[in-house]
Specification:
The chain is mainly α. The chain has twelve helices and no strands. The termini are far apart.
Length: 244
């Protein structure tokens, strides 16, 4: 038996509309309703780069006495060029793509690829070294590092939504860019769950969609500008750390 009753009782979501349910309410409901075997999947999606699990891994891998065998094979190379924020993001993506659930793995891979293409486009636009901003070591990340000067970064035919992501980099309004990025995420979730029926994947997609709507409905224009000024400051700080 799946999640027929749970999904039937959840309010409908609509892209661009305010979230009909708060994050706290939804988290409580899901914690009470999910099967014990499915709850770890929700916890994976709730993990952030600042989570205790990520912090513990980051501290362990950065310790000078940590055995190289205990680190991911990509860690030392990444640590030589990436900021702490990017290393934490890399750990998050790495854990997510090791999930036992295909939907969760693909969600993290999609976000890693989209963010890498967007960051690469912005770096190239402003004259930063693309290779020092790419996170992860999958096919898209490796191609981005290798084909920095090609208009499409050599990803033509590799990513179905490549042009949509490249177009985001041309949007100067940071709040608008982030909203359109979330719109791509929303569309991806809708497409990926078309053929699921009352499954945990539908519940997880609902959680992710509701979170995006909640985040934007809670922001005023002024708050949004503050958020993105902070994001830009963090990006500049990261670039400075890498170049030092």
């Amino acid at each position: 038996m799946g999640y027929e009753c749970l999904l039937a009782g959840l309010p409908d979501l609509k892209a661009g509309a305010p979230s009909p349910v708060s994050s706290d309410e939804l988290n409580t409901l899901l914690e009470e309703s999910l099967k014990p075997s499915d709850l770890p999947l929700l916890n994976q999606l709730r993990m952030t780069p600042e989570s205790d699990t990520i912090s513990a891994l980051y501290t362990c891998y950065q310790a000078p006495d940590t055995n190289d065998m205990d680190k991911p094979v990509w860690w030392d190379d990444a640590a030589s060029v990436l900021s702490e924020a990017d290393l934490r993001a890399a750990l998050l993506y790495d854990l997510g793509q090791k999930s036992k659930n295909r939907f969760v793995r693909e969600w993290y891979a999609f976000n890693q690829d989209m963010n890498n293409v967007l960051v690469a486009s912005i770096c190239r636009k402003h004259g930063f070294d693309v290779r020092k901003a790419i996170v992860g070591h999958n096919e898209v990340a490796d191609i981005l590092r290798t084909h920095t000067q090609q208009k499409d970064f050599g990803l033509g035919g590799v990513m179905d939504n490549l042009q949509d992501i490249l177009d985001l980099a041309a949007i100067d309004n940071l709040m608008e860019r982030e909203k359109r990025t979330d719109a791509l995420r929303f569309a991806w979730l809708e497409d990926k769950t078309r053929f699921y029926v009352f499954s945990i994947e539908l519940v997880l997609a609902y959680y992710l969609e509701a979170g995006m709507l909640q985040r934007w409905s809670a922001l005023t224009v002024e708050q949004g500008e503050q958020v993105f000024r902070a994001m830009v400051a963090d990006m500049k700080k990261g670039v400075q750390l890498v170049n030092e």
